[in-house]
Amino acid sequence: MAIIDAYFKKMKDRGGSDLHMTIGFPPLIRFRGELVPLDEPVLTPDSNRRILTEIMPSDKLAHLDENLDCDMAYALEGVGRFRCNFFFQNRGIAAVFRIIPTEIMTLEQLNLPPVIRTIAEFRKGLVLVTGPTGSGKSTTLAAIIDYINNTRNAHIITIEDPLEFVHPNKQCLFTQREIGTHARSFADALRVASRENPDVILVGEMRDLETISLALTCVELGILVFGTLHTNSAAKTIDRIINAFPSDQQAQTRTMLADALSAVVAQQLLKTSDGKGRCAANEVLLGSPALASIIRDGKISQISSIIQTGSARGMQTMDQHLTLLVRDKRITREAAYEKAIDKKLFASSEENHGYLTRENARNA
């Protein structure tokens, strides 16, 4: 058994989400959002390299030494699967591992807004699930894909780096491809995906212009495409996609995106009020003729108004969902304040006075 397997088991037993292996510290696990040390020796350059390379195939080790970072997946029987990122930093080799739950949680178990089920029932269009690293995007997407798997017959292609959730074939046929193992890049995998007769494509990351462009082309072919971006609001997501293109292509991109975009779900994770876990807060934007017109005209600042007036369809701003979570006592006002767009909504009377004073001074 590899030395690091014992660390993975401890992380799983304690309910941790990530394992950090950095020289100068003992192994650290992220537990309820905080880094907690394991009762293990401090890692040295020699010990860390020995522990980390013990689980790396030779091709991944060669890739790490040549490119100075490497992604892979690692499975430990009886414990789980892990998303691994190896890299070099100023002290030497380091790595971060995220546990991938073996059980795919349902939309109901995740307490996601009911509109997410509606989004899962779409038959075409572009759906983007966004948020910072560690905000649960992959878990939410896995729940959406699982819902499709249980409710319709379809061919689903997932393109990931690395492969995370492994979906069993229920009502759907799955083709799951891992970058570096089954395809050279997201763009290469997307370029041929449309020839593989898919109904649904999940793109693990839309990180570059070529990948975004190919995803939009797949949508034009009538395919339902899910993707992720590291943005924290619907408006910033649309800006990010358009700004990925050269200025002389942005007008055309706005037109394509206006026709393609079916939904944006921006997500953040917050500590629950009982301190025993975390829950998701979501901003939800749904496609409409009004949204398409705003995107074509480049009036992205009006998206907040579209969301606020679309509550009957299930749309909500991040602050609206945070307000609901505070009302239901699932999170504290302090937790909401930390993640809110409009801080004064969740400030105490004294803090609110100070906030408004600062805002007035800033605007003077």
How is this structure best described in words?
The chain has 14 helices and 13 strands. By secondary structure, it is of the alpha/beta class. It has 3 domains: 3-100, Beta-Lactamase, CATH 3.30.450; 107-331, P-loop containing nucleotide triphosphate hydrolases (Rossmann fold, 3-Layer(aba) Sandwich); 336-363, no CATH class. The strands form 2 sheets. A 7-stranded mixed beta sheet has the order 9-8-10-11-7-12-13, sandwiched between helices. β10 (200-203), α7 and β11 form a beta-alpha-beta unit. The longest helix has 15 residues, at 137-151. The model has no long low-confidence stretch (mean pLDDT 93).
Proportion in β-strands: 15-25%
What is the alpha-carbon Rg in Å? Answer: 22 Å
Our count of domains comes out at 3
Examine the secondary-structure arrangement and name the CATH architecture of the largest domain. 3-Layer(aba) Sandwich
Core attributes:
alpha/beta, 364 residues, Beta-Lactamase, six-stranded antiparallel beta sheet
Task: Give the structure's gist in a few sentences.
With 364 residues, this protein is of the alpha/beta class. The protein contains 14 helices and 13 strands. It has three domains: 3-100, Beta-Lactamase (2-Layer Sandwich), CATH 3.30.450; 107-331, Rossmann fold (3-Layer(aba) Sandwich), CATH 3.40.50; 336-363, no CATH class.
